[in-house]
Amino acid sequence: MVPLYAAALAVKDGLRRIGVLRTQRLTWPVVSVGSLSAGGAGKTPVVIALAELLGARGWNVDVLTRGYGRSGRGVERVDPEADGAAARFGDEPVVIARRAGVPVWVGAERFAAGEAAEASGAMDAERGVHLLGVHLLDDGFQHRGLARTMDVVVVTEEDLDDALLPAGNLREPLAALRRADVVVLREEEQAGVVPQVRGLIRVGAVVWPIRRQISFRETAPVLFSDIPTYGHIAFSAIARPANFVRMLGEAGVGVLEVVTFPDHHAYTVGDMKKLIETCDLAIGNGFVTTEKDAVKLSPSMRAQLEAAGPLVIARVDSLFVDEADVVRELEARLS
User: Fold this and answer.
1) How far apart are CA 85 and CA 88, in angstroms?
2) How confident is the prediction along the chain (335 residues), in pLDDT tens digits per residue?
3) Which helix (H) or strand (E) holds 189?
4) Lowest CB count within 10 Å: 40, 213, 239, 310, which one?
């Protein structure tokens, strides 16, 4: 199956080169944030970090995203506080909208989403508000039908040892990094990853190291207990759950059991019963999960869990190690 997948990629590249597959261009510059892998690289915290950084520099930032698995249709602006927001818009778009506080537009056609965003920006201009607009294209490295000003690609150590789909988690071979303008690496992986990445990227491409930081909005009394029999049930529906569990351990969180679901899984009442049963059997004192998972829990689901123990939500931030370098590179390209 891997040779067939690789052949399909080659055919698409060939059609793009001869103009059969066309590229559309928006008025505002586009900064794509993507990865080689099908999930788990940590793109969402990077999108949020860039949105906050650009917003602080006076740019009118929005995010264009597909909204994977959403029930909504066409192009929509995300309302993160709407009932069933995660189901309608997608879990990651809701997290970005809540955290970054910028307009997030979802749609299978990212060009159409960008046009809607620019039309909204034009209304601001008519009201006398002068804004520099920039689109952040979430998960855009493989979405080559939309032209971009710069390609930012998040790469992990795990990616460098992975295989193409369906045997592995890679959507493109490592050689695709030749298209990248910027490669984002985790600070703790630099020593092992930088030498390999330098041999894959083109001259002029740069590397931005990030420092990942986990924090907790609501800390249960037993979250950091040293008593082995005290701890939480960690659950998630993300692409690489082992990374989440490892970060919890590094933060000193006591985890008794780990329950995982497929990436983007839509939670059910039955799932809540399973988690509560796991907590009872492990004599756990509560639950800990990710922001991406928390936005998919209905009020009744949260109430179910909280009746059995506190629900703690883990927030992961990506902090640029050298923010000044990032700002210089962004402004040089966007201006």
Assistant:
1) 5
2) 555 544 444 445 554 555 556 899 999 999 999 999 999 999 999 999 999 999 999 999 999 999 999 999 999 999 999 999 999 999 999 999 999 999 999 999 999 999 999 998 765 555 555 567 999 999 999 999 999 999 999 999 999 999 999 999 999 999 999 999 999 999 999 999 999 999 999 999 999 999 999 999 776 666 766 655 568 999 999 999 999 999 999 998 889 999 999 999 999 999 999 999 999 999 998 999 999 999 999 999 999 999 999 999 999 999 999 999 999 999 999 98
3) none
4) 213
CB under 8 Å to 206, separation ≥6 — which residues? 181, 182, 183, 325, 329
CA distances from 53 to 41, 131, 321, 323 (A): 20, 15, 13, 9
Measured between alpha carbons, how far is 301 from 297 in angstroms, rounded to an integer?
6
SS3 179: helix
Per DSSP, the chain holds a count of helices (H) and strands (E) of 12, 12
| One-character DSSP codes across 233-246 | EEEE-SS-HHHHHH
Residue type for position 142: Q
Residue 33 · residue 47 · CB < 8 Å: yes
